[in-house]
Amino acid sequence: MTEITRRRSVEAVTFSTADGWSLDGLLYAAERPAASDVVLLHIHGKGATMLDIQARWLPDALRGVAHFAFNMRCHALAYNTDRDDVPVAGGMYESLADGEVDIRAAVEFLRAEGFTRIVMSGHSSGGYYAGVHTPAGDDIVGRILLSPLTDNKVALDWWYPEPGALDEALEKAQALVAAGRPDELIALPSWYWAISARSLLERSATPGSEFWIERVNALPSPVLFGWGGTESRDGLWTEIAERIAPDVSSARIDASDHWYHGYEAEMTDLVAAFVEDITGVDPRPGQ
Predict the structure, then answer these.
(1) Could you tell me which of 166, 132, 174, 170 has the C-alpha nearest to residue 149?
(2) Three-class DSSP labels, the chain
(3) Contact indicator for 200, 171 with CB cutoff of 8 Å
(4) How many whole angstroms separate alpha carbon 30 and alpha carbon 32?
(5) Is 232 exposed, middle or buried (0-12, 13-18, 19+ CB in 10 A)?
(6) What is the largest CA-CA distance in the chain?
(7) pLDDT for the residue 38
(8) Does the CA dihedral 189-192-196-197 come out positive or negative?
(9) What's the CA angle centered on 245, arms 242 and 249, to 5 degrees?
């Protein structure tokens, strides 16, 4: 891959969700006129932002097509709920339902901008959303699922490994919600360090990987499924990839970690080949 030149043209935009939230995004124009209707929609994971993981380097490396990265409500790690101007809903207070509304708004924004071929690109929790989002219409022409979270309950076993500890935490969360304190934080031993009572209950009630697989298979558009071979879920993703019904291409990188540190160029080449295959447009910078 040739050396990346920093993009110098980007438009900062604000758009609204159906439930009245304002979200910020970055829209990168395509350098190739033939790609004016093609856009990569980058969906970040929990705690990340529109400037992280694949959205950090792909807009620079693949300037032939447009890119749109935006901050979902779960961006960064929210820390309080007492602001009068902008209420907090992300991070430790994340609602999975909010995330689906956010992505729906991003897709509608891109449609209004004239993009008729949208390639959803999600990493980690963003890969979960890219998998379950199945809008009407045929403009989602491809999905790039990178180290996707397929089961939002997976963290519960990490947080509460001792017998009975999870049940005790859920009882506490239910009591807080019943008392009108759904946003009160419950301490955790890892990852977020804390999570709201309402968010903990929502996680425990969500369906597992079977639901995610069903949603991925509900759309016919092809899939690029990638992850790092050193990740703990390597075996799980290998099994899931075999159950994806649409055409699926592998972007598994043997020695990579969850963030593709040191393997950005290799992942870029895999994404570029996938985008060109499904759109007929070379996403690399023009010569």
Answers:
(1) 132
(2) CCCCCCCCCCEEEEEECCCCCEEEEEEECCCCHHHCCEEEEEECCCCCCCCCCHHHHHHHHCCCCEEEEECCCCCCCCCCCCCCCCCCCCHHHCCHHHHHHHHHHHHHHHHHCCCCEEEEEEECHHHHHHHHCCCCCCCEEEEEEECCCCCCCHHHHHHCCCCCHHHHHHHHHHHHHHCCCCCCEEECCCCCCEEEHHHHHHHHHCCCHHHHHHHHCCCCCCEEEECECCCCCHHHHHHHHCCCCCCEEECCECCCCCCCCCCHHHHHHHHHHHHHHHHCCCCCCCC
(3) no
(4) 6
(5) exposed
(6) 63
(7) 97
(8) negative
(9) 60
pLDDT in the model for residue 8 = 58
Which is nearest to 173 in space by CA: 199, 207, 152, 194?
199
Quote the CA–CA distance of 35 and 9 in Å, as a whole number. 16
Q: What is the pLDDT of residues 209-230, one digit of tens each?
A: 999 999 999 999 999 999 999 9
Q: And the tokens for 167? A: 């049940």
If you average pLDDT over every residue of the chain, what do you get?
89
Q: What are the residue ranges in the chain where pLDDT is below 50?
A: 1
The pLDDT of residue 78: 59
φ and ψ at residue 70, rounded to 5 degrees: -145, 160
Cα 179 from chain centroid?
33
Supply 107's token pair: 């897709």
Residue 126, CA distances (Å) to 100, 123, 243 in order: 10, 5, 20
State which amino acid sits at residue 82.
D
What pLDDT is stored for residue 82 in this prediction? 59
